[in-house]
Design goal:
Beta-lactam/transpept-like; Beta-lactamase; AmpC-like; 17 helices; D-alanyl-D-alanine carboxypeptidase; 521 residues; carboxypeptidase activity; alpha+beta; 16 strands; nine-stranded antiparallel beta sheet
Length: 521
């Protein structure tokens, strides 16, 4: 068998392989870095199989020379995962050859350092994790990956099959617990098709975006660039924000700022915002689903409406809070939120399947399709809305990810790998929402299960796609899932969505309440 590799494919393989050696060399820079790199490169040069010629043709990773360890990691770790995904799709045997070749080179580079530093040991772990991150990516067929082989979990498979029966098109589930990892899928990836949803496919994750954004803000708090109890107006004076609104209140949904996607008044009437897929504006949203909104105009619209309550005196879920958080991040760093996300979260964790799309309607393959049903001139129509411009919700819920990346992220976050312990404790400190057994921290829900346990969570829906993300407070047990469905203006799927959350939470964590993740983000 031969593998057809494009120039971009070859570049990915070269950066991944030689970059891993460069990364090891940089992490253990004390000693003889040139000699260490040489020995590692020789080990790579002996790579066997059909990819050997690609590596042999590229003796140096010139674009990585002179970079910091963090910068190299940001390039190399995602490239390793991408390389493994590429090879697994084209020739699984070559994926094994590639993995072995890289690990041999890494081991050789490590040996040449004499006594490896803690930084080197950490890089070995990250490189190995990145190589193994594609372990579940038998994605095109929806097959259960090797990591799940031999684990008989019929209760989990039955649960997702019953979720499909309740009205969803498809579901993919990933569970990490004391029994190891289980991954499976049910339903179909596309209406009229027969293929199951990819077990590690890409999905629009809706309000899970808020947890990523809150983490980014708290990392900048840790770096001394943002004050958690500083007025948001201090950083964003152009909006005329109430000076009593602290940064903390944005992350906690206690600012009182109007939600630009609309609010439900106490008497049940709707206070509209921009056209959204729900209520009376469904067809308008469909017709304009490729329109670009800029974050500033979403905030300005929200601030033109009356505040919900005095800052700090109530709790109300508002996408506007997180668009303000995005603008705050960009103001204090001088970089886009996508660049900062890559620098501080996606790169270090090797989250190559996670995307901050801004206004791009594209979604990486593989993916399960998302649909929307609406009425036009008295006729019911169902359209594929997998491609849509997510700028209408911005950082209130625009990100794309996979169940593997969501697991890696929430596990690392709660495991203390992304911020100091004190800030993590603040993030997970519950603030009352008025919903029984369901409080909110800074970008996360803090749930109390039926058994009295605590689960940290954020779920989200994004018009035809939904994502679940649950973990124990230490990140040791996680549940992540992606769902695809036919959405509509009446939120007909909402009851099934809540039931799905409860069912999975019961199966994995022994029961609990559900997250009122807003379909608008």
């Amino acid at each position: 068998m031969t593998i057809t590799l494009s120039d971009q494919d070859k570049s990915t393989l070269r950066i991944a392989a030689y970059g891993a050696v460069t990364l090891m060399t940089a992490a253990g820079a004390a000693g003889k870095p040139r000699e260490i790199a040489t020995h590692g490169s020789i080990a790579l040069g002996s790579a066997t199989g059909l990819i050997g010629h690609v590596l042999a043709d590229y003796p140096k990773v010139k674009d990585l020379v002179g970079k910091s360890v963090a910068e190299i990691a940001g390039r190399v770790l995602p490239a390793l995962t991408a390389a493994m995904n590429l090879l697994k799709q084209q020739d699984p045997a070559e994926a094994g050859n590639f993995r072995s070749a890289v690990l041999i080179a890494v081991e050789t580079a490590q040996m040449q350092q004499g006594r490896p530093s803690p930084a080197t040991a950490e890089m070995v772990r990250k490189i190995t994790e990145a190589l193994d991150a594609a372990g579940a990516a038998a994605a095109d067929s929806g097959a259960v990956p090797e990591t799940a082989a031999g684990q008989d979990r019929p209760e989990l498979q039955k649960a997702i099959e019953e979720i499909v029966d309740s009205g969803f098109v498809g579901v993919s589930l990933r569970v990490h617990d004391e029994r190891g990892e289980w991954v499976g899928s049910a339903g179909v990836a596309e209406l009229g098709g027969t293929a199951k949803p990819p077990v590690n496919g890409h999905a629009r994750i809706g309000s899970n975006t808020k947890t990523f954004t809150a983490t980014l803000v708290l990392q900048l708090v840790a770096a001394g660039k943002i004050g958690l109890d500083t007025p948001a107006a201090h950083y964003l004076p152009e909006f005329g924000l109430d000076e009593r609104i602290m940064v903390r209140m944005l992350l906690q949904h206690t600012s009182g700022v109007f939600n630009f996607t609309g609010e439900v008044n106490a008497d049940g009437t709707i206070a509209p915002g921009i056209p959204i897929p729900y209520s009376t504006t469904g067809k308008e949203w469909v017709d304009n689903r490729f329109k670009t909104y800029r974050p500033q105009e979403l905030v300005e619209l929200a601030l033109s409406k009356p505040a919900r309550f005095e800052p700090g005196t109530g709790w109300s879920y508002s996408n506007t809070n997180y668009v303000l958080a995005r603008l705050l991040i960009e103001r204090v760093t001088g970089r886009s939120v996508a660049e900062e996300m890559q620098r501080l979260i996606l790169g270090p964790l090797g989250l190559s399947g996670t995307v901050v799309p801004d206004a791009s309607p594209e979604i990486p393959e593989p993916y399960a399709h998302a649909y929307y049903r609406y009425e036009d001139a008295g006729e019911q129509k169902t359209v594929d809305i997998t491609r849509q411009n997510p700028s209408w919700v911005s950082s209130g819920g625009d990100m794309i990810s996979t169940t593997q990346d969501l697991h890696t992220f929430i596990s690392a976050l709660l495991g203390g790998k992304l911020m100091p312990a004190g800030l993590l404790a603040e993030m997970c400190t519950p603030h009352p929402t008025g919903i029984p057994n369901m409080d909110y921290g800074l970008g996360v829900f803090v749930l109390t299960t039926d058994g009295g346990g605590t689960v940290i969570s954020h779920n989200g829906a994004a018009v035809g796609h939904a994502a679940l993300m649950y973990a124990t407070p230490d990140g040791s047990k996680t549940l992540t899932a992606a769902l695809n469905c036919v959405d509509d203006a009446d939120l007909s799927i909402a009851t099934a969505f809540q039931t799905a959350q409860r069912r999975l939470l019961n199966e994995v964590f022994g029961g609990g309440q559900v997250d009122p993740a807003q379909p608008t983000g």
